[in-house]
Amino acid sequence: MPFDPDAAAAPGTGIFGLPFTEQESSVILLPVPFDATTSYRRGTANGPEAVRAASAQVDLYDRRFGRIYERGIFMLEDPAEIRQLSDTAGAIAEPLIAGAGTTGDTKEDDRILNQVNAACEKVNDFVYEHTMRVLRTGKTPGVVGGEHSVPFGAIRACAEHFGGIGILHIDAHMDLREAFEGFAWSHASIMHNVLSRVPLVKKVVQVGIRDFGERELTFAREEGDRVVVHFDDEWSESMADGERLSDLCKAAVSALPEQVYVSFDIDALDPSLCPHTGTPVPGGLAFNHAMLLLDALKRSRRKVVGFDLVEVAPGPEGGPEWDANVGARVLYKLCGLA
Questions:
Q1: Over the stretch 204-238, which tens digit does the pLDDT of each residue have?
Q2: Is the pTM of this model over 0.90?
Q3: Among 162, 222, 158, CA closest to 192
Q4: Contact status, residue 52 vs residue 75, Cβ threshold 8 Å
Q5: Do 123 and 282 form a contact (C-beta atoms < 8 A)?
Q6: Measured on CA atoms in the order 253, 255, 259, 261, is the torsion positive or negative?
């Protein structure tokens, strides 16, 4: 029976109810259920499976991106070894996180940090190796987190494979903290690690930013024109003064090189759209405003070489799955960019 994109998703089908195998698909999604360094509230390790389940409700024709599904999208199974790492490392990290970076015992702090950092490095290696395999087949990799630490390996792989990329970083936070709470691979340190360790990332353009420390701002300024920050309140002020959002989006995208990786933290959105994310922040992008930004990237004809969607956390068990519902729709648009 031929696939009907307007029919309900059939039981047992893949992400978005699609019938494609990995071999038939041009976009390969890797779930990374890891959230050991989350500093406010955990739960994003459950994000990939929640998004997978919610994706069955996504209608497949998109006014801006057309028949996204036609190129084939495939999501791998949750890797059990990564989930186990998250559970183990998260339990080990708890006392340090509860003490805001210290237990009061230096030796114990060192023990915790060594174990959690080692777990994060295993995640980095796992994601890097998987992403490289996807890239070598000519397909587009997407990472579904998990906390925002998880796409480091994918960003590194894309930068190496393409010989230089830019990042469109959509987030409430700058993520430029160095080893936040002592964790070298903290979710709050992803872009610091990228800028410090992946020289082939030539430009990072940040949009939605509204929560950051002064040292993060200093770090961004010290990077010069390698980092461009668009603050959420500045965009609001500009629009209040009559500037068009479409022009702000075009200006943000124009700073990117031809090859772009998109890193989308769900907390960039207004928290009414993602109330259970790990670190929600008032303000943020409306859903359609965020999609206008992605559309501006599409219209610029830059090549999207990879992407991630992170920090989606499902709500309490038995409750309405709003966060994953929104996350699934963001993910489908990201697949459309690819």
A1: 999 999 999 999 999 999 999 999 999 999 999 99
A2: yes
A3: 222
A4: yes
A5: no
A6: negative
Q: Can you tell me the distance from the alpha carbon of 247 to that of 235, in angstroms, rounded to the nearest whole number?
A: 11
Residue 315 structure tokens:
């709500």
H-state helical runs in the chain: 47-54, 80-98, 106-136, 152-162, 190-197, 214-222, 232-240, 245-254, 287-299, 322-337
Rounded mean pLDDT, 19-31: 97
> What's the CA gap between 266 and 54, in Å, rounded?
15
Q: Supply the CATH classification number for the domain 22-337.
A: 3.40.800.10
Kind and range of the H or E run holding 304? strand 303-310
Q: 191 phi and psi, to 5 degrees?
A: -80, -25
Yes or no: say if 189 and 175 are a contact pair by the CB < 8 Å rule: yes
How do residues 245-297 score in pLDDT, each as one tens digit?
999 999 999 999 999 999 999 999 999 999 999 999 999 999 999 999 999 99
Residues in the chain: 338
Instruction: Give me the residue spans of the domains in the chain.
Output: 22-337
Single out the residue of 180, 181, 183 nearest to residue 101, CA to CA. Answer: 181
Q: How much is the pLDDT for 152? A: 98
DSSP structure string for 138-157? TPEEEEEESSTTTTHHHHHH
User: For the purposes of burial, counting CB atoms within 10 Å of the CB of 175, is it exposed (0-12), middle (13-18) or buried (19 or more)?
Assistant: buried
DSSP 8-state assignment for residue 62 = E
